[in-house]
Amino acid sequence: MRIKFWASTLLLAAAFGPATVWAQRSLQLASGKLLTASAANSQTIFTLPEPSGGTSRLRVARDATVAEGQAPVSLKLVAEIPGSVLILVDTYPSIPGGMSYCQAGEESFLRVLSISGKRPNETYRTKLESCRDNLELASPGLEWLPETRTLEIHWLSAPGKVGKPEDRALKIGADGKTQ
Amino acid sequence: MNITSPLGSNVVFTITSDPTWPSIPFATDATGPHTWNWKITWGSFSESGVATTASNQWDAQSVVGNRGGTLTVTIRAATQTAVATVKIKGTNPSSNDVTQFLVSKPNSDGFDKILIHESGCRHFNLAGEPIKSFDNGYGMCQLTSPPPNFGQVWNWKLNIEGGLSLFASKRTEATNYLSQSGRSYTQDQLKYESVCRWNGGSYHEWDNTKSLWVRHPNILCDSATGNIGWDTTDAENTGKTEAQLHQRDSPSYRAAPGANAHWKYSGVCYADKVLG
To answer: Which of A18, B88, B110, B263 could form a disulfide with B195 if both were Cys (CB 3.0 to 4.6 A apart)?
Structure first.
C-alpha cells in the first residue's frame, strides 16, 4: 500500500517579544509519546522518548540557509517503524536576502533517525525543499511503501540538478540504514 | 614635480546614469616616462595596478572600469614622486532606463516590477555612493549572496544582472512547476508564479475541475502591507474580513510571525502587490 505523506504537528510553545523565538515543535509517535524539536545555535535538537520512560537527545545539522537559533516552524512525521526508525521532515523560514528575496520562503530537511540502539542517530539526511537553493518537490513529493520499507522522493527541482527533476527511492533497513 | 591635473585634492568625477565612466585625466609638469601606481577603494572593496606612459599624461578611465570610490594615484617620474586623490561618484538611472535595460534581457518579465517596488530603481545614495543595507546588501538589487564584486556594486547594470541570475532560477522553477504533467499556462501566469517564488512559495494551484492553473484560493492578503496574508482555512481566520484580520494582527507585524500567529509572509500576496 502506498501511503502519501501525512503529518502531525503539535505546538508546544509560543513566541515571545519582538525578536521571534520558536521555542519548540512536537509530534506524537505511535507509542503515544511526544518527540520534540528545538534549536541551539545552528543545530536542531530532537528529544526522543525511550521505551524505558526517559528521553534521549539528538543534535542534527541544518545549513546556512537557516538562521542560528531558529527552531522548526513545522515538524512532520513521514513514516515510523515503531521502536526502530523515524522519518521526519523539519522546516524553517529561509534567511531572507535583499529585495524581499525568500522572505516568505522555507527550507526543509528530510531525516531518517534510527532509534533502536542505545542512542538515537541520524542515518540519512537530504535537503528536501528550499527557497534559497531552488529545490522543490513534485506532488506527491514523498511516498512511503510500508511493505518494502521504501521511501520515494519525487523532486521537480532536485538537489544538485539545477532545476531538473529526480526520483529517488530509499530502502530503509531495520537499523535505519538506507540503500 | 607638481600635479597639473586634476587641480586640487578630492576632485569629484561623476559616472553618468548610462552608466558611462568619466575621463579622469592626470598630468604633471615633469618630463619623460611616468609610472602611475593606482589604487581605488570603497568600503571593503579595493583594486590596484600600475600603468606606465612615455609622457606626463595618463587617463585613469581605462583602469577604473566599473568601479568607484576613492582613487589614489602615486606618480613617479625619474626620482620625483607625487600623490593625487580623486573621488568617483555615481548617478541614478531612471525607472525608464532600468525598464529599457531589462527589455533587452531574456526571461526578465516581472523583475522590473520587483526593482521598482523594492528599491525604486535607486542604486546610489545622496552622496553618490552605492546604497548599502544593514545586512551588506549592495546597490539596486541589494546583492548579498553570492557576495557581489566591486563592479556589481558600482555598475547598476552589472548589479541588475546579478539579481537577474537569481530571478532566472525562480523563473526556471516556475516554468517547471506550471508545465508539469503537460499542463499549459499563460505568460501572465508565468510572471506571477516567478515573482511569487522570488518572495517564497508557489502562486498557483491546479484546479482539476476546470483543468487550469488558478491563484491559491485560500490566501487573503493584507492590502496595506507588502506580503502579509492569511490562510482562510485557518479556523481563526475563516469568515473574517481583511479589515477585521488587519485590526487583529497588524500590531504584531513589527516582527516575524510567532508560533501563535495566524498571519504569515506570503509570496502570493507579494506577487499581487508587486504586479497589481
So the answer is: B110
* Residue B192 reports pLDDT greater than 50: yes
SS3 state of residue B58 = strand
Distance, in Å, from the CA atom of A62 to the CA atom of B171, rounded to the nearest integer, reads 26
CA A157 to chain B, closest CA, distance in angstroms equals: 7
CA distance B67 to A37: 48
Q: A124: which residues sit within 8 A by CB, 6+ positions away? A: A110, A111, A112, A170, A176, A178
Residue with cell 546556512: A64
Residue type, B222: D
Could you tell me which residues are beta bridge partners of residue A79? A87
Enter the C-alpha cell of residue A137.
518537490
Q: B220 pairs with which residues across the strands?
A: B230
Optimal mutation site among A101, A102, A103, A131, interface B, most CBs of chain B within 10 A: A101
Are the Cβ atoms of A98 and B257 closer than 8 angstroms? no
What is the nearest CA distance from B107 to chain A, expressed in angstroms? Answer: 15
- Cβ neighbors of B113 (< 8 A, separation 6 or more) are B195, B274, B275
Q: Say whether pLDDT at A3 is over 70.
A: no
For chain B, domain boundaries: 3-89, 92-180
Model pLDDT, residue A23: 63
Burial tier of A134 (Cβ tally within 10 Å: 0-12, 13-18, 19+): buried
Which of A85-89, B12-16, B142-146 has the least mean pLDDT?
A: B142-146
Judge: B254–A17 Cβ closer than 8 Å, yes or no. Answer: no
Strand partners, B80: B77
* CATH domain B3-89 topology: Immunoglobulin-like (2.60.40)
Supply the DSSP string of B194-221, one letter for each residue: HHHHHHSS-SEEEETTTTEEEE-TTEEE
Average pLDDT of the segment spanning A33-45: 94
Judged against a pLDDT cut of 60, whether residue A19 lies above it is answered with no
Predicted complex ipTM? 0.84
Instruction: Average the pLDDT over A42-65 and give the result.
Output: 92
> pTM of the entire structure?
0.85
Contacts of B67 (CB under 8 A, 6+ apart): B40, B42, B45, B47, B88, B150, B151, B154
pLDDT (tens digit per residue) in B7-36: 988 999 999 999 999 999 999 999 999 999
